[in-house]
Amino acid sequence: MVIFAAALAVGAAGSVGYALATGFARAAERADQPDVIVRFAPQRRSVLDERLRRLPNVQRISYRLEVSGVGLAAGGHVRGNAAVDVVEDGRRGYAIMAGHDLGSGPGEALVDRGVARAWNLRAGDEIRVGRLGTLRIAGVALAVDNVAFPLATVPRVYVTEREIQRRFGRERDPAVNLGLLWLADPNRLDVTLAAARPAVFGLRTEQLLTRRGVRQTIDQAAGIVIALLAVFGLVAAACAGAILAAAAGADVRRRAPLLGVQRALGASRRRVVAEQVLGTVFVAAPAAALGLTLGALVAAGPTLALLGFLNETAPGADLLGPLAGALVGLVAVVAAGAGWPAWRLNRRPVSTLLRSGDLIPPPTRRRTRGRPGLALLGARFATARRGRWLSSVAVLGVAGAAVLLVLAVAGLLVSLRDDPGTLGRRYALTVAGDASDLPAVRAVRGVAGADQRSTIEAADSFALTEPMRVIAYGADHVPFESPPLASGRRLRSAREVEVGTFLADTLGLRPGGQLALQPATGRELRFQVVGIVRALENDGRVVYARSAPFRRDDPGLGGPIAIRLAPGADRAQVARRLAQAGFGGRVAGAATPHDRSFLGVLAAVLRTVAMAIGLVCLAAVAQTLALTTRDRRRALAVLRAAGASRRALSAVLAGAAGALLLPALVIAVALERLVLGPAVARLAADYAVLPLGVGAGEALGVGAGAVLVGAVAVLVVTRSAGREPVAAGLERED
Amino acid sequence: MTCLLRVRGLTKTVGAGRVARCVLDGVDVDVAAGELVAVVGPSGSGKSTLLHLAGGLDEPDAGDVEIAGTRLRGRSDTALARLRARHLGFVFQAFHLVPELSGEENVRLAARFGRTRTQARARAAELIDAMGLRAVAGSHPAQLSGGEQRRFAVARALVNDPVLVLADEPTGNLDAESGALVLSLLRAATRHGRGVLVVTHDPAVTTSADRVLALSDGHLR
Questions:
Q1: Backbone torsions φ then ψ of A36, nearest 5 degrees
Q2: Does A368 lie at the interface with B, CB-CB under 8 angstroms?
Q3: How many pairs of residues across A and B have Cβ atoms under 8 Å apart?
Q4: CB contact under 8 A, A381 and B100
Q5: In chain B, which among 168-187 make CB contacts under 8 A with chain A?
Q6: CB B101 to CB A727 under 8 A?
Q7: CA of B59: which chain A residue's CA is closest?
Q8: How far apart are CA A247 and CA A338, in angstroms?
Q9: End-to-end CA separation in angstroms for chain A
């Protein structure tokens, strides 16, 4: 059972880890992802081609025109911000996941996989694409240059250049704005990039994105969590390995007299050990294979959903290799766990082996007052083998700490999704409106403050490839939104800004420095950086500012009105009052709507891993109890002969379980609070202050889980022990 | 006289297939109140198996066992446990004292299944004093001599005042003096109306027994 449970945990955590670690490479390979994507302002194809052809190490170039802000409607969904990629023949840099690629047939389009999933579209369905009108969906495409819609806010469709010419007339030298470059030797990317900069001089280059850069962009979407999953997979594997080794070792020790007999009959030490190892492998291999398979199947659903969000593909049959490796690893751990103690035991004199069937260490307690309690007796049974008890407690403690951390992260993700406060947001509602509506909104009962919250997409004036999001309020943003300050101070005037940590690190900004930013529409603006804030929004690529400087160029600058509630005000009631006053109130979440389901999927994946580790804990407790029962088989039989019922037996085993779980729980909470939580929070410190220390509620929850695990283990082992005839436990001596 | 143990047609086979061996083949035996019955026979003849079956520690292939008028066949595990706690006391050949507990704790542990806390404490103390074990009551089994362990095992068997004591080689491996003390304790138990079934090779026990039965080839004679 323990091998099966441990393999289940390794299968679940390992398949999640492998799928995520290799997802990008796999998808990029399948989609024939270009090594470099160059984004320009629209140019004639011949102009671009003339420049890019001269670059060294380029094997193939393909061009596209990407038109943004196009209306898209299909399956009852409508978006006005779609991107239409006009592709030419040749290499296209995407994979066809369903249906067929665009050919010479008229009136066809490909939809991005994220769009197809979110809108439930299939090949053969119709889609309305801006001025192109209604097109038939030829297939579903996967391109690995960004995360998937709706995590990426822009839905994308592909049409052929031929289709455009058919609709709007033939153009000899069409405009393009994307160059897709495949290199002859991808390892010499630096040579190509060095030559690319002077080659494109004079052209307005907006972005130069390498395959590595794309990967970083995608990893940013779930970077911390994916790293955590890999760590949890390792923890689960380490715990499983320790349990397996301990169990196999205990089994060998129990068989010491048999080893003695074999040696006495003339078997060599090597042969005895080999037989032990082979016997263990024979039992372990099928159980481990079954557990790994089931674990991979359990994790498959959430993993697939997560990969879908990241525009990556499932490993499929590729997973068989790592699973086979895990099978070999697990069996090797069990074999080593059996072989090493067998080897050590066999170094003892044969006479010692023959006597060591029921080794009980000498008692350390001299005297006990009062009648011995059954639970206390069970605890003494569990601690009698000090080494096994300590290793079991250590394994359970580490596994428990991992479970606590996973739950803390999952809880944080749910907070990020639902609780604005996690991101430092203090406003609880937003309503549509403009600055002239502010007095009316502020007059609604329960509203403590209201201000217009505008978001402006911009780029650094000196590095246009560094996009950022400006969050601008009419007045002070702190009453509405206050991400923690990492350094400096809050802004006090319209000429000052606070900058997210990630952006500050990227651009080398410090308090006192200058930020020159180029809004998507409008002229360049310069601000003094006065503070660096730990913000999660837009991966920390944010700037907090006053809206006045932006309004000068864009008087119609809009955005929802953010509303802070008065102390004790009920959010739902205030929303109703706002609706009555003519404002449709919306509850503010911490995540943007397109992030919400992604965060939910991440939390589900984490909970699956936590469940797998919990199963390892259950197996560890059951295994240790079973070993204790086996070791103390005779003592338990004596109790039963003296009239102990199954309930009394349960009390003894509950005591043994308590001796394992109580210290393990203390270790788990301490480890999570003092080591794991702070360490993981430090990992994320570039983005935000993450409260990953386990709270009393979570500790109590895990405590209750431990009690449940203990109860299940006691129940299983008691049933198993109770089925054995008492006489068998006493051993026949006639 | 009241029959405390009635065994009829008890059959038990150990092993399976070609190695199956019938160790008890339709055995009948009765033990009345106040009677000490000894069972003798060569090693491997099934003496301990008979004791285990008589005490409900194992299930026979056929036959019936009644203890103080209660038939064991078909009883649940819980009912058997209750019956053992109230009516039976076991003395095992290898003592089987729990090594983590002191001698006195071993005696009290058995008492918790058949008596209240106060009764258990008083009865355990009484038996320990009666057997001359007070000085070593707090010692653990590893620190006790074979004779002391055997006496604690007998005290544990008697602590619930069972009507029937089943003893497996209670004087085995003991010197003459210790063996005589254990035998006197069992004999004393019969004087209080208990029945004792003893499996033994010890001539001193067979001499002292009310009846001696020989087990051979699965049959009791």
A1: -140, 140
A2: yes
A3: 121
A4: yes
A5: 168
A6: no
A7: A725
A8: 8
A9: 34
| Portion of chain A with pLDDT greater than 70, in percent | 80
Q: What distance in Å separates the CA atoms of residue A511 and residue A624, rounded to the nearest whole number? A: 57
SS3 for B37? strand
Q: Which residue has the higher pLDDT, A584 or A658?
A: A658
Integer CA distances (angstroms), B92 to A85, A285, A577, B106, B166, in order: 88, 41, 83, 14, 8
Tell me, what DSSP letter sits at residue A725?
Answer: -
The alpha-helical segments, DSSP class H, found in A586-632 are 593-631
- For the segment B102-125, the average pLDDT, to the nearest whole number, is 82
Query: What are the pLDDT digits (tens) for A603-616?
Result: 777 777 777 777 77
Query: Residue A474 carries which DSSP code?
Result: S
Q: How far apart are CA A639 and CA A377, in angstroms?
A: 11
Which of A374, A380, A734 faces B46 most closely, judged by CB atoms? A734
What is the average per-residue pLDDT within A480-496? Answer: 87
Task: State yes or no: pLDDT of A734 exceeds 50.
Answer: no
Nearest CA in chain A to B55: A641
Q: Is A190 exposed, middle or buried (0-12, 13-18, 19+ CB in 10 A)?
A: exposed
Q: Does B125 touch chain A (CB under 8 A)?
A: no
Hey, are the CB atoms on B59 and A725 less than 8 Å from each other?
yes
Is A392 within 8 Å of A449 (Cβ atoms)? no
Residue with the bigger pLDDT between A682 and A656: it is A656
Q: Give the distance, in angstroms, between the CA of residue B29 and the centroid of all CA atoms in the same chain.
A: 15
Give yes or no for a contact between A302 and A604, defined as CB atoms under 8 angstroms apart.
Answer: yes
The model scores a pTM over 0.90: no
**What pLDDT, in 10s, does the model give residues B139-179?**
988 888 888 888 899 899 988 889 999 999 888 877 888 88
Q: Collect all residues with Cβ–Cβ distance below 8 Å to A377 and sequence separation of at least 6.
A: A652, A655, B98, B100, B101, B109
The beta-carbon neighbor of A372 closest among B44, B83, B101 is B101
Residue A268, burial from CB neighbour count under 10 angstroms (0-12, 13-18, 19+): exposed
**SS3 (DSSP) at A33:** coil
Which residues in chain B touch residue A381, judged by CB atoms under 8 angstroms apart? Answer: 100
B100 close contact with A: CB closer than 8 A: yes
With both helix axes pointing from N to C terminus, report the angle between A211-254 and A320-345 in degrees, rounded to the nearest 10. Answer: 30
pLDDT tops 50 at residue A362: no
The pLDDT, as a whole number, for residue B63 is 92
The per-residue pLDDT for range B29-49, each reduced to its tens digit, is 999 999 999 999 988 888 888
Which of A631, A702, A619, A628 has its CA nearest to residue A665?
A702
- What percentage of chain B has pLDDT greater than the value 70? 98
Higher per-residue pLDDT: A256 or A589 = A256
Phi, psi (degrees; rounded to nearest 5) at A70:
-95, 145
CB contact under 8 A, A368 and B168: no
| CB-nearest partner of A642 from B49, B85, B140 | B85
What's the pLDDT tens digit per position in A1-42? 667 777 887 787 778 778 877 888 888 888 888 888 887 788
Q: Euclidean distance between the first and final Cα of chain B, in Å?
A: 22
